[in-house]
Amino acid sequence: MKVVSLFSGAGGLDLGLIQAGHRVIWANDNDVDSCETYKLNIGDHIICKDISKINLQEIPDCDVVVGGFPCQGFSMANMLRDTDDDRNKLYKQFYRIINNKKPGYFLAENVRGILSLDSGNIIKQIVKDFSDAGYIVKYKTFNTADFGVPQTRLRVIIAGTRKDLPENMEFQFPEPTHNKATWISVSEALKGIPEPEDPKSKLKNHIYSKYKITNRNFTGHRETDPNKPSPTILARGNGKGGVCAIQHPGNHRRMTVRESALVQTFPITFEFVGSMGSMYRQVGNAVPVLFGLHLGKKLEQLKSVLV
How confident is the model over 117-143, as pLDDT tens digits? Predict the structure, then answer.
């Protein structure tokens, strides 16, 4: 299928869809480093520009629109209102493009917290908006560890199928391929990766935050269990100007950018561009490539109706 990707970041979801056989024909993000990373590894079809400044005519027709919009600060008071509030601007842009381009399908990724915002009224409004735009809409929370990703990462996927498509062509969510007994551990994912100080190491982006490890019950400061999937790879900082990188399974240092990317199932040859903090952020913001592949396989099963 032909895919338009919004808020693409470094391209984790896009790469998974490409691995499933789809073609991303247009992508967008407004972060310069993310766009440079995307161009270096995936292609020149990404436009580095504020999505609200892009005319609909610039976006090609497509079969699928994908992307994740931030939900922090959403309230019923600002949903789809004509306001400059950045907290709902990107949702409005996602809606604007879906409503105009009318792709056969859309997939929106978000944090689990979107389901509890405003006592659940926000997700209800989102479903109503896209339903009114002509889509059968459903959503589900996934743990990417259930799909072979060596990381406990809970995310919501909101999926839409255009209502005029045949009933048997409705998008179906992928079924888990793993369970707690077969989850991939972080130690397994990083097996054979040398220490970053090893002079023989030629790995790209194999650098790490020297922020002091203090084991306490706080996000980014908990010990990493080497026999379980990694805790969620984070995009945010620690509140003191530094990154909040997850501890290595040896718990002697923080994971490097490269190790974090491996936990996010990026290929070992995928190279990130920018400062160390920027690279950590790009990795943490991404959809795990392997989970994107599973979503792409479900789209692949449906492509015949749109040919």
Answer: 878 888 998 999 999 999 999 999 999
CATH architecture of the domain covering 2-178+288-306 = 3-Layer(aba) Sandwich (3.40)
Q: Is 48 a catalytic residue?
A: no
- pLDDT tens for 266-288 read 999 999 999 999 999 999 999 99
Relative to beta strand 2-6, strand 46-48 is: unpaired
The residue whose two tokens read 């199932």 is 265
Residues 162 and 241: beta-carbon distance below 8 Å: no
pLDDT grade for 73, boundaries at 50, 70 and 90: low
Asked if residues 46 and 27 have their Cβ atoms less than 8 Å apart, the reply is yes
Cβ neighbours of residue 77 closer than 8 Å, sequence gap 6 or more: none
> Which contiguous run of DSSP H or E holds residue 209?
none
The encoded tokens of residue 306 equal 């749109």
Mention every residue, 6+ apart, whose C-beta is less than 8 A from residue 181: none
> What's the CA gap between 232 and 108, in Å, rounded?
19
- Cα 157 to its chain centre, rounded Å, is 10
Strand partners, 65: 4, 106
Give me 150's structure tokens.
């060596």
Distance CA 152, CA 146 (A): 9
Residue at 221: amino acid letter: H
Judge contact between 282 and 32, C-beta under 8 A: no
Backbone angles phi, psi at 110, to 5 degrees: -155, 170
Written as six digits, the tokens of 94 are: 């996602």
What are the domain boundaries of the chain? 2-178+288-306
User: Radius of gyration (Cα) for the chain, nearest Å?
Assistant: 19
Q: How far is CA 182 from CA 173, 177, 178, in A?
A: 20, 9, 6
